[in-house]
Amino acid sequence: MKKKKIGKQTGLSGNRDFAVFWFGETLAMFGGRITLLAIPFVAALTLGATPLQMGMLNAVQILPYLLLTLPAGVWIDRMRKRPLMLTANLVRALLLSFIPAAYALDLLGMGMLYACGFGIGACTLVFDLAYQSYLPALVGRKDLVEGNSKLEISRSAAEIAGPGLAGALIGILAAPFALLVHSAMLLISAASIGRIRRIERKPDPRSSERGMLLSEIREGLALIFRNPYLKAIAGEATTYNFFSQVTGAVLILYITRELGIGAGPLGLIMGAAGAGSILGSLLAGPLAKRFRLGRAIYVSMLLGCGAPMLVLLTHGSGLLSAVILFVSFFFGGLGVVISNIHVVSLRQTVTPDRLLGRMNASYRFVVTGAAPVGSLLGGVLGSTFGLQATLAIGAAGTLLALLWVVFSPIPKLSALPEPAEGEG
């Protein structure tokens, strides 16, 4: 009797450590969607927050990204990443538990909510920067695209199903107690990280001796602007984010007031972005192999940057406008996710291991720094020139973002370049 040959496992199919990490991070992503909806509900419905207080609550959750991103990148490069991720999840779980506990004891106020929001935002920042720096060591450079694709599938699934899950939990448990579900998910995620067996290499001992914090921050920023790949993708992302915020400032007003689309249909339309994201996560790897990496990045960015132009074709209430919006959101999600998967893998490949934390922090700081200004500009333009004119300006700006990549070496890439020196 002939014995069946067992095929050799390829890619991440046999990587137990990644499977454990992926499971825990998927739970955390779904939990994050609960918190994203529950904290504003706690403020608005439980505490009766004013519009100014709601704005402040949103601001304090973003503030860590502006204040801590660059120094956090230096700090992360000096330490092992896995303990940082584990600690960040444990602290987030603790902070989330404070809110329902304070509510049950009649001690909850906006001040505590501000403090918890800032702390949760800071821990989320540390976790995200650490995991992006840790992933190359966990999966190996050759499997980065597959690893990032799988994580993006989880993120997209959370984007689609998370809001519905959050709404149901808030309805059953009340907003403060719904946060306990996210807290429990973070504890499971922390336990999953603790079960990773792969021994993490010690950071370069010179990283803690290299001098002043500011000089190390400059090193991360210099890498972004010196490397032609990083410079191009940072320029594209910064321009895209800026003009997306111009559009985002007035888009909901335009859809609800000018097109007369209600909250229910709007939820389905916005869900199209998540559906496109899941498809993009599945197609990213095969497209790069079939059509070359540079072409896959360029075409997917064209989809993502061009999708807002479709909104300009809408006019008046009716099914056609709703269909056009659905298609715009779908192709926007599809294009952005395909390009993001390859861009993250490219960033992780061209950056030396000892600079991964600083690169990720510098990149995050550069590409998100202009977003609040874009949102403010969108509001001013909408008040001055009207909603449609503002949408046209925003859509044109996002399309122009593609020029950063067109005039870069990226379209010529057939595959990921050779890893940067310093790889372990």
Automatic annotation (TrEMBL):
Predominant location: membrane
Regions that span the bilayer: 20-43, 55-76, 83-105, 233-255, 261-284, 296-313, 319-341, 362-381, 387-407
Molecular function GO terms recorded: transmembrane transporter activity
UniProt keyword annotations, A-Z: Cell membrane, Membrane, Transmembrane, Transmembrane helix, Transport
InterPro entries for this protein: MFS_dom, MFS_trans_sf, TM_effector
Protein biosynthesis as UniProt keyword: no
Compartmental location: Cell membrane
Topology in the lipid bilayer: Multi-pass membrane protein
Superkingdom of source: Bacteria
CDD domains, per the entry: MFS_MefA_like (cd06173)
SUPFAM superfamilies: MFS general substrate transporter
Keyword flag Metal-binding: no
Domain Major facilitator superfamily (MFS) profile: from-to ranges: 178-424
Any Gene Ontology CC annotation: plasma membrane
Pfam families, sorted: MFS_3
Protein name: MFS transporter
Protein's organism: Saccharibacillus brassicae
